[in-house]
Amino acid sequence: MLRLLAWLTILASAGVNQAASATIFPAEVTYSNRTEETEETKACEIILDASNPPSREAVKFVAFAGYNKYDGGVVAGFLMAAADLTASDKYQIVQISDAAFSSRAFTSLDHLNYEAYEDGTVMAATQAPVLAAAFVNAVLAGTYEVRFARSDSRREMRTYKIASPPEEAVRNSFMRCLELFANESSRIWRNI
Q1: Could you tell me the CA-to-CA distances from 151 to 8, 22, 103, 120, 122 in Å, in that order?
Q2: In the predicted model, is pLDDT for residue 155 greater than 50?
Q3: Dihedrals phi, psi of 86, to nearest 5 degrees
Q4: Interval 79-133: pLDDT, tens
Q5: Backbone angles phi, psi at 12, to 5 degrees
Q6: H/E element holding 63?
Q7: Nearest to residue 150, comparing CAs of 124, 121, 123?
Q8: 94-99-103 Cα angle (round to 5)
Q9: Which end of the chain is more exposed for a tag (fewer CB within 10 A), N or C?
């Protein structure tokens, strides 16, 4: 028993990732936002960066809402990535699967369409306005969890519990962006 405790102490002090199938209450939670445009969509984003030192794992959760440029349709969802801080203080993305968002008001499972990318990230989105609004409101409320399985950990789930909403400046910027995009989207509808 003492050997096991000593081994766990050594691993923790070395900054080894937390045990698989863990529930994490991250000590470091930072929100920011930006506007993203692709060939197909324009989107407002709220970006959550979460970590829990001394663990070397970090999670990036990008909630987005916007519209499809071709038909003005609503699109909302998230992009999630996990990464490990390397010895050279750079983040290396790890492969994840089974990504999910969950709050009292909304869960992404069975409501969003999922797509996994080769770089290890996962995206989930919807074009249904009611689901998009429910998702955005759940993110803005700030009490939710993001879950995923690391491919290098035999698919055991990791849950990051987020207990704080985005700061007022981030929320306000996001809402102004959505208002602008709502006007642009409605112009597309008028021209169809």
Answers
A1: 22, 15, 24, 9, 12
A2: yes
A3: -85, 175
A4: 999 999 888 888 999 999 999 999 999 999 989 999 999 999 999 999 998 999 9
A5: -65, -45
A6: strand 57-68
A7: 121
A8: 135
A9: N
State the residue for tokens 């096991």: 4
Residue 110 identity (one-letter amino acid): D
User: In whole angstroms, what is the distance from residue 63 CA to residue 110 CA?
Assistant: 17
The encoded tokens of residue 63 equal 């909630």
Question: Where do the structural domains in the chain lie, given as residue ranges?
Answer: 22-191
Q: What average pLDDT score do residues 14-32 get?
A: 74
The full DSSP string for 106-165 is -BSTTTSEEEE-TTS-EEEEE--HHHHHHHHHHHHH--EEEEEEEGGGTT-EEEEEE--P
Region of 186 on the Ramachandran plot (φ > 0 left; ψ -120 to 50 alpha; else beta)? alpha
d(CA 123, CA 118): 12
pTM, rounded to two decimals = 0.83
Asked if 112 and 135 count as a contact pair (C-beta separation under 8 A), the reply is yes
What's the token pair of residue 155?
């698919």
